[in-house]
Specification:
By secondary structure, the protein is of the alpha/beta class. It is built from nine helices and six strands; from the N terminus they run αβαβαααββααβαβα. β5, α8 and β6 form a beta-alpha-beta unit. α1 packs antiparallel against α2 and α1 runs antiparallel to α7.
């Protein structure tokens, strides 16, 4: 299942171009911000996240979209370059940015503080897998448009079908709405940023307890 999931995502995403306000980290290199082979680094980082597991994940955790300091540069949902370079972190990868120090992200730190003990059981994905930003402002973040969410609904459906998760957690209302459009049952959990860390942790742990984890 993990190999099939990785191949599915690669086939659909890795050749799609970026636009003026939607950056595809797996196909595009920004010469002002990235290493020359940054897109390939991010592809490999994502493949490691998907495939380097002892068993298939039981839970799909669906977030909204990559932020400007996390998945945009790491290629791994809600994960920063700094985390991938930490030898004690459960996922390993390389830095794709040309910055003197690897980027770090506040939400990613909160997220993994809760999720790290459950890493083998949870696979995280984004409703919109590309980074939505304002034109000319690559380090900004904007809310994905409904048209962008609709664009990636077929991929989301295939991800769920391939995974056949025992449970789906929707992080935020955009993820909840996307799953509802597709008719998938889900459990809503609060996004960990902006004061939601405690509620996010409670929601995840409650679901893990239901599954006997």
């Amino acid at each position: 299942m993990l190999t099939e999931l990785n191949a599915l995502i690669a086939k659909i995403l890795f050749s799609q171009p970026s636009s003026l306000d939607l950056f595809n980290p797996y196909s595009t290199v920004d010469p002002e911000l990235d290493l020359p082979d940054a897109n390939l680094i991010r592809q490999n980082n994502l493949a490691s996240y998907i495939c380097d597991r002892d068993r298939a994940p039981r839970i799909l955790l669906l977030a909204e979209a990559p932020g400007p300091w996390g998945c945009r540069f790491s290629g791994v949902p809600i994960t920063s370059e700094q985390q991938l370079l930490d030898p004690d972190f459960p996922v390993h990868g390389r830095q794709s940015s040309s910055a003197s120090e690897p980027h770090k992200e506040y939400s990613a730190s909160i997220y993994w503080k809760t999720l790290e003990p459950f890493h083998a059981s949870i696979f995280t994905w984004n409703t919109v897998p590309f980074h939505p930003h304002y034109p000319g402002k690559p380090h900004s973040i904007r809310t994905p448009r409904q048209s962008e969410i609709n664009r990636f609904l077929p991929l989301l459906k295939e991800v769920v079908d391939v995974m056949s998760p025992e449970s789906i957690l929707a992080v935020g209302r955009k993820a909840e709405k996307a799953l509802g459009i597709l008719g998938f049952e889900q459990v809503y959990v609060r996004h960990p940023s902006q004061g939601g860390a405690t509620l996010f942790a409670e929601g995840v742990r409650n679901e893990m307890n239901k599954l006997g984890q």
